[in-house]
Amino acid sequence: MIVSKNNHNWYVLYTAARAEKQVNDRIKLQGIECWLPLHRTPRAWSDRVKMVDVPLFRSYIFVRCTEPELRTLTKVYGVARIVFYDGKPAIIRQKEIDAIKEFLEQAANHTLIVGDEVEILAGAMKNVSGKVKKIKKNYLILYLEQLGAMVSVKLEEVAPLKRLK
């Protein structure tokens, strides 16, 4: 068993569906360290595309506390249960938390480059994929192989498909 100084370990809580942010706020109000890993992703509606922060792990949040404090968190509205491993609350090592944070940092710094394949998320060309030819401040020039044409698309209206090597 891995136990940190002063018996504060990272644990995992399973939340109700789509309640991660609210549960995170409620636990922080109790003075307990809580972390909800979020990443920015484009979401398309019928009339627009917007960048939104979504949980990296749906229905899971991390808390750093003692085991007795952990047990009281099951009373927080939106917490479904404690995640167990081998009959005990699952303890997450600090290096694993750090690895997730590093991954999110690298992903946030990832930008599109010429040659990347992207999918258009909105407008008349919705769901059409193309190859990035030029990158401007707020838009991209894409080559659409299916049409043999070049088009200009707003940067927030595309999502990367795969990186070409």
Protein described:
- Helix content is 19%, strand content 41%.
- It has 165 residues and is α+β, with helices and mostly antiparallel strands.
- It folds into two domains: 5-109, NusG, N-terminal domain (Alpha-Beta Plaits, 2-Layer Sandwich), CATH 3.30.70.940; 117-160, SH3 type barrels (Roll).
- The strands form four sheets. Strands 1, 2, 5, 6 and 9 form a five-stranded antiparallel β-sheet that branches. Strands 13-12-11-10-14 form a five-stranded antiparallel β-sheet, with no helix packed on it.
- β10 and β11 form a beta hairpin.
- The longest helix has 16 residues, at 94-109.
Count of spatially separate domains: 2
Question: Please, what is the average pLDDT?
Answer: 89
Supply the CATH class of the largest domain.
Alpha Beta
The fraction of residues in strands falls at 35-45%
Helical content, roughly? 10-25%
CATH topology of the largest domain: Alpha-Beta Plaits
- Amino- and carboxy-terminal Cα gap: 43 Å
In CATH, what is the homologous superfamily of the largest domain? NusG, N-terminal domain
Rough outline: elongated
Q: Which residue ranges are poorly predicted, with pLDDT under 50 across at least 5 consecutive positions?
A: none
Structural class: alpha+beta
Question: What is the H/E order?
Answer: EHEEEEHEEEEHEEEEE
Q: What is the gyration radius calculated from CA atoms?
A: 21 Å
- What composes the largest sheet? 5 strands, antiparallel
The CATH architecture assignment of the largest domain turns out to be 2-Layer Sandwich
Number of strands: 14
Number of helices: 3
